[in-house]
Amino acid sequence: MARRQYGYVSGNIKSTIMTIEQFINNLGFEINPFQYSNADKEVEYLDSYFIKPDYFEDVWGNPYNPVSNIVYAPRGGGKTAQRIMIEKRAKESKDILAITYTNHDLSEFKKIEDINLHYHLTYLNRLLLVAFFNRINDTSFDFNFTFNFSERQYIYKLARIYLFDTPASFPNQAIQSLKTLEDYAVDLWKGFKEPITNVIKQISKSKGLEVDLSKIEIDKKLELSHKNNTFNIIQLLKKSGYNSIYILVDKVDEQNLTGNNPSASFSLISDLIKDLELLETPNLSFKFFLWDALKPFAVEAARPDRVFSYDLRWTWIQIIEMLSKRSEAYSRGKIKNFESLFENRKSLGRIVLFSELSPRDCVRICNRILSEQFKENPNSLKFSESVVDRSIEQFCREKAQELIVNATNLKHLTKTNSVSFTIEELVAAKVAADSPAIRNIINPWTTAGYLKKIGLVERKNAKSVNEYAYQDIRLAFMATPTLSLDQFIKEKVRRCKTDTCKTFYYRDFDRKPYDCPECNTENE
Ligand SMILES: [Zn+2]
User: Fold this and answer.
1) Alpha-helical segments (H) within 314-422
2) Does 50 fall in a domain?
3) Residue 51, in any domain of the structure
4) I need a labelling partner for 419 at 20 to 30 A (CA). Which of 30, 164, 212, 262 fits?
5) Nearby residues for ligand 1 (ion, Cβ within 5 Å)
6) Does 153 lie in the same domain as 88?
7) Span from the CA of 504 to the centroid of ligand 1 (angstroms)
8) How does pLDDT run across 135-189, given as a tens digit for each residue?
9) How far is the CA of 438 from the CAs of 33, 424, 473, in angstroms?
10) pTM of the entire predicted model
């Protein structure tokens, strides 16, 4: 295939002699390592740059005596990467079934609070049964020997309840959820284009008795006992050779009714996470990969003493390691040290700092640097300091718009012109007319955790007032529009000097010193 010589249009005349693909190849990469910031798109490469958190083995646990647990992580913190690594590991054992529970069709619900256990069990039973039929379809599987007559009748009754009348969205959901099954599963269901009832007719025929699901009679009681049916399906799966079943719950906050709202997101799974009887079913375990904003709700409603949880927090060193491993994977071993791509080594530190230790945000910043460097000087084999700084500034602007969706409210942020302040100071700076107006502006920021009370400021002849500081460096940077990136870092950012702490915090250090919020060390 001929290479495109003039293909990439960037609006910059200099770049017309080289394509961005060539630029990326010249740097040493096979393809752009920062093209995707979502683990779902990188399943192939994930093994090579996955960094196992300390607790990873605990989450995997003993598959033959599995327990349910929860992993909390910030958005972009690598939940999906962990889920995929569990899926991959399950795939190595023929007797472990992993079902990915991520694609919800909530069209029948008006509001998120209406979602109940009935919904989850119906959906899960559907998926478990598809996995079951896939399993018994194997020609070497002796169906009539493994299951007695009444079990076989029960199996077809379950199929009638859960698979006869499925929503239009189900085939796609099933493909997404059961992708860990052997590849022939897709053949078998012909990508689920064939109605499942026909497939079951074929399977049952091959097992000696053709079954037409539409003729199967079921009683109301059986139809309504979803939980008992779940327990029984687990037993059937066990008899068919699955000794362990993992249900991997992910993307709870990415559904149309849950969005950015922690409380709504928790509503989606609250009935599931509260049901200890289900969570402690032998041979079955649930692994919840949750946005950490759901933690307060889960701690209150679920049973932390019975369902253990783990927090995914990245350290500075782990992030750098992840970036280097990623470069190595995408360059087939050529670039082992990501830092070597930078003209100035402090640029890499800045990327990590402005990612707030989120792998996804690091990848987003790096992707921007690639395209900015290409625009500025595609002949360079390193990223220049000014390109990195500019990319970080652009990223902050983009991130601030995502965090504060309301444009007027975001404008107020840029008017604060400081990183730590009291409400009275903002009134004096004319951000708004009076204290109540300022409170209205900053309330959503404190609720979302972008702004935090950091202490009291004493005043002469008046009572002390609260002092606030931004918790997110991207917002802190946007709040000081008159400063360059260099000035901002010099005046507003400190890293605690205590070796065991090393916390970053953002304050108006140019006005006065502030102690470390974690260990109270004074940092000049
Ligand atoms: Zn400290």
Assistant:
1) 316-330, 346-354, 359-376, 385-403, 407-416
2) no
3) no
4) 262
5) 496, 498, 501, 503, 516, 518-519, 521
6) yes
7) 8
8) 888 778 888 889 998 998 899 999 889 988 888 788 777 777 777 665 555 555 6
9) 43, 9, 21
10) 0.80
